[in-house]
Amino acid sequence: MSTTPTPAIQLVGLHKAFGSGEHEVVAVESVDLSIEAGEFFSLLGPSGSGKTTVLRMIAGFETPTSGAVLLAGRDVTHSAPYDRDVNTVFQDYALFPHMTVLQNVEYGLKVKRVSKAQRRQRAIEALENVRLAEYGRRKPSQLSGGQRQRVALARALVNRPKVLLLDEPLGALDLKLREEMQVELKAIQRDVGITFVFVTHDQGEALSMSNRVAVFNHGRIEQVGTPREIYDHPTTGFVAGFVGTSNVLSAELSAELLGAAKAHSLRPERIRIVDKPATGEISVAGIVSDVQYLGADSRVRVDLADGSHLLANVPSDGLVGVAIGGSVRLAWSRAAASTVAESEPDSEDPNQIGGNQ
Ligand code: ADP
Ligand code: MG
Description:
The protein is of the alpha+beta class. The protein folds into two domains: about 10-230, P-loop containing nucleotide triphosphate hydrolases (Rossmann fold, 3-Layer(aba) Sandwich); about 240-340, CATH 2.40.50.140. It has helices at about 50-60, 100-110, 115-130, 145-155, 175-190, 205-210, 225-230, 235-240, 250-260; strands spanning about 10-20, 25-35, 40-45, 65-70, 75, 85-90, 165, 195-200, 210-215, 220-225, 245-250, 265, 270-275, 280-295, 295-305, 310-315, 325-330, 340. The strands form four sheets. The protein has a six-stranded mixed β-sheet with strand order 6-7-8-3-9-10, sandwiched between helices. Strands 13-17-14-15-16 form a five-stranded antiparallel β-sheet, with no helix packed on it. It has a four-stranded antiparallel β-sheet with strand order 2-1-4-5, covered by helices on one side. Helix 2 packs across helix 3 (about 115-130), helix 2 (about 100-110) runs parallel beside helix 4 (about 145-155) and helix 3 (about 115-130) crosses helix 4 (about 145-155). The chain is globular and about 75 Å long. Magnesium ion (MG) binds near residues 51 and 52.
């Protein structure tokens, strides 16, 4: 008989409204989610989609209006934050400037009255976890932004929580540092084996770091899956547009081109510019309205007869004969387009908030 391990976190019918009457704001709606022990799990979505509120309900800083939070099978919905085996790392971490790095990491244990010898040993271990063993005597002002963020992480790890919650922890770092920290953070998580729940509005960050991702829109989860599943098979128009760049073909256009009257998503890199489509390929003609050079690839925008347009990523050295105003033929394999459900339109354009690379 096989037994399923108890999930590290279970969210059951989670609902959170702020205010009441006409001022009520529903921040989180009908969220059901199971996160396995040891997973690097990301909550991805645009600003205002409810990610932080979900994280705060897991941490215990916020009480759900209805629904339940279970940690390792235990219902903690009404437990205080200190009575939960979780720790949170925020974006605007505050280190004590007058203390050394080691003292900063030890501080929480001191408050908990852990003996001096023990807390020194655990702090050193936590600094080793974040690869800052050599920096214990420095003051925070003598560290780079990325190193300070790792001290903040060590301060959480020193408590040895089962679950670490991270709310946009890399948001304050510049791009290059952020990319380095993404690699570091993933490696640290693998080493310590703790469940990480990572909040971000950056789809690239979520895809590159996570075992699984939940995509949020308007307080609801639109899709849960591995980065690959989410990217290759977005199940809603919102996910298709928010994660990477995608063409969403309307039901009418799909009926005409694909013979199925349902909206479809089609990634730009799956579309080729051809003289003649191969057997079995779907094909449509249009007028080139823009060519955007991206390096090895270029993104070509092609206007179609029905007033819509398609984006195609093609190798830049294959652009011979492609000119703005000229006509081209696009082709893709039948399997490249997948059906998507209609999403609630977002108040913010997903492509403006990290939805594009
Ligand atoms: P995200 O982290 O995805 O940006 P949040 O969880 O912070 O989203 O917010 C979700 C929604 O709930 C937003 O509309 C936000 O304005 C609202 N909200 C969050 N916290 C509060 C609060 N304490 N009082 C009133 N509204 C809130
Ligand atoms: Mg937030």
